[in-house]
Amino acid sequence: MNLNETDNLLQLADLIAAYHEGKLNVRQKAELEAKLIGDASFKRMFDSFNNKTNVFSDLKVMNGFDTELSLVEFHKRYATPKTFRLWPRIAAATAALVAIAFCIWFYTSPDPDHTPELVSVSEDIAPGKQGATLTLANGKKIRLSDAANGQIAKETGISVTKTADGQLVYEVKETNDNLNQINTLSTAKGETYILTLPDKSKVWLNAASSLTYSAGLMERGHSARLVKLEGEAYFEVAKDKTHPFVVESKGQRVEVLGTHFNVNAYADEPIIATTLLEGSVKVTDGINKQIIKPGEQALNNSGKIKVEEVNIESITDWKNGELYLNHINFKVAMRKIARWYDVEIIYNASVPDDMEIGGWVSRNEKLSSVLKSIESAGLVKFKIEGKKIYINK
Q: Which keywords describe this protein according to UniProt (predicted)?
């Protein structure tokens, strides 16, 4: 982090202070609005620093203000990624962080007497890991975390290989009727896996999910490439104009020719959420259909499909090793946490359904660290007992 970056952070702290005091003049307001519209990284930084929950969650979790670690985490989360030396700039950078925190603390008037109670832990829980089970057409199950690298299965016309970096790759060796045999890749709670299909499409499978497909990928009697999803997956589909790629889930069909998109179709979620990053997607349920554009999400509630713009980071967080908790429903966030840490959530009746939380948390943290980050906002208290999380207001 260089001095220019530090100066920018201090200027941003001053800007936030003036913003909360109502001291920005017409020109400054216009400049700020133009900057927020034209610079996505600046907007993310501004939104983050303008949310006292985010900043103070970060400060409290960073190993009790371990200065060097705080700077590393601060730089990863808010600054432009680059190689930098810590100690030559550590005082200035820490001053910038403290200045920002002070501005947010002072001008948003929190309760000075409130000290959040840290999460009560009887035994901590490690984060999830890479793992899945492959079920072949003959019923044989292969635990991929236990399987050695290299070819792990060979069905007629198909080779299935586990790569050195722990991914599953299908290759079609010859064309025959056995390509219609059905395989299923499934993850338990606390597992995630990456699969490369025979057409070279790539699938990231989230925790507690399953993907079912024929070994040759083609839908019998049709030209479509068909997979069936339960849970959540992110797709990077290889382009093939003559063979549409179709994802079926809970009565919905998503049809693409080649694109990047995410489908969340967990049984315990009230809606199916299909989010597009690039290309074009057609979402169909019965007679209802919608075509969505990049940055849009189709929300399917029992066949009624609504389209709205969405923050992509909040959708693909799990794929990128994060838990994005900024301005999302608290109970939705806890369902994400429950799947990744393989725990049961038990709510006290005092916890409302419409509460929101904020911040980012790494999916590589232990459960207690994640809960402490959330609890530092003072909205709820957690208690971990074995595989159960008790939540009180």
A: Membrane, Transmembrane, Transmembrane helix
